[in-house]
């Protein structure tokens, strides 16, 4: 295994370690800057195949060229929360 010492802490990272007792990799908390975006409306399309859903956002003011989005917590009007991650959901 190789590793490199970084000169500074990255803006986004997760700690990982190998558990010798279980023989499995374990992962800690994600460390990243959280940005709350309010006033966004969502149009949900549910007629896709294999339970694919599409969301069209309006009023989304975050500059994605300057800000990387790794995960999203979608909060509905009734207070329900849904976690979305970058590989599958966003």
Number of strands: 6
Oligomeric state of this protein: single chain
Radius of gyration based on Cα positions: 18 Å
Order of helices and strands: EEEEEE
Biggest pleated-sheet summary: 2 strands, antiparallel
* Strand arrangement across the biggest beta sheet: 1-2
- Structural class estimated from helices and strands: mainly beta
Tally of DSSP helical segments: 0
Content of β-strand: 35-45%
Mean pLDDT value = 78
- How helix-rich are the residues, as a percent range? under 10%
Low-confidence stretches: none
Envelope shape: extended
Report the end-to-end length measured between terminal Cα atoms. 32 Å
Descriptive overview:
- The protein has strands at 13-19, 24-31, 41-45, 54-58, 71-75, 81-85.
- It has a domain at 41-85.
- It has 90 residues and is mostly beta strands.
- It is extended, with a radius of gyration of 18 Å.
- It has a two-stranded antiparallel ribbon.
- The mean pLDDT is 78.
- Strand 3 (41-45) and strand 4 (54-58) form a beta hairpin.
In brief:
It contains no helices and six strands. By secondary structure, it is mostly beta strands.
Helix and strand arrangement:
Layout: E1 13-19, E2 24-31, E3 41-45, E4 54-58, E5 71-75, E6 81-85
Antiparallel strand pairs: 1-2, 3-4, 5-6
